[in-house]
């Protein structure tokens, strides 16, 4: 699923851009945050998969990381021009200098997570191309390399460790101050 249902009038930029490592909950929280705010949800990885007719893993294997990152950069640029939307980025998207420049001035929500919760959430199975060999060590190394960038780019940081999606969404809504009238950020939705 790339987007959720729209509501309300358009603004010139996303209400929030959700970033973080694999297993942080970017898609789950992005979708639920959009619902709480009454706006559409745009998942850049899902949009790339739909446009290319291939999974992220297949794009990595068949065309290489550089090709995938170029597709990702273009999709992020497109998503950031949409109004009244919550955008969830792939974990590596914020590492691109051009994407970092695009994020400047946006409300960027960093979903922070430790390896225990990330492992439980994604299982470190084969559908994550950068985590295929020794996933725990690879994830830890990747997070150590990315953490400073995630922190620098974010305007809001939320620790997701051991927390339910509704709690995380409520914290983000409170931090960004965009809850729509009649919407309840703590209402659980079906995934």
From TrEMBL:
Residues bound to ATP: 23-28, 128, 163
Residues that coordinate or bind substrate: 45, 69, 91, 146
GO biological process, one term: chorismate biosynthetic process
Domain of life: Bacteria
UniProt cross-references to InterPro entries, sorted A to Z: P-loop_NTPase, Shikimate/glucono_kinase, Shikimate_kinase/TSH1
Protein's UniProt keywords contain Transferase: yes
GO cellular component: cytosol
Known pathway: Metabolic intermediate biosynthesis; chorismate biosynthesis; chorismate from D-erythrose 4-phosphate and phosphoenolpyruvate: step 5/7
Cofactor note: Binds 1 Mg(2+) ion per subunit.
Enzyme nomenclature, EC number: 2.7.1.71
Reaction equation(s) it catalyzes: shikimate + ATP = 3-phosphoshikimate + ADP + H(+)
Binding positions for Mg(2+) per the UniProt entry: 27
Localisation per UniProt entry: Cytoplasm
Keywords: Amino-acid biosynthesis, Aromatic amino acid biosynthesis, ATP-binding, Cytoplasm, Kinase, Magnesium, Metal-binding, Nucleotide-binding, Transferase
SUPFAM superfamilies the UniProt entry points to: P-loop containing nucleoside triphosphate hydrolases
Enzyme class, UniProt record, top EC level: transferase
Gene Ontology terms for molecular function: ATP binding; magnesium ion binding; shikimate kinase activity
Family stated for the protein in its record: Belongs to the shikimate kinase family.
HAMAP family xrefs: Shikimate_kinase (MF_00109)
Biological role stated in the UniProt entry: Catalyzes the specific phosphorylation of the 3-hydroxyl group of shikimic acid using ATP as a cosubstrate.
Subunit details: Monomer.
Name used for this protein in its record: Shikimate kinase
Source organism: Pedococcus sp. KACC 23699
Gene behind this protein: aroK
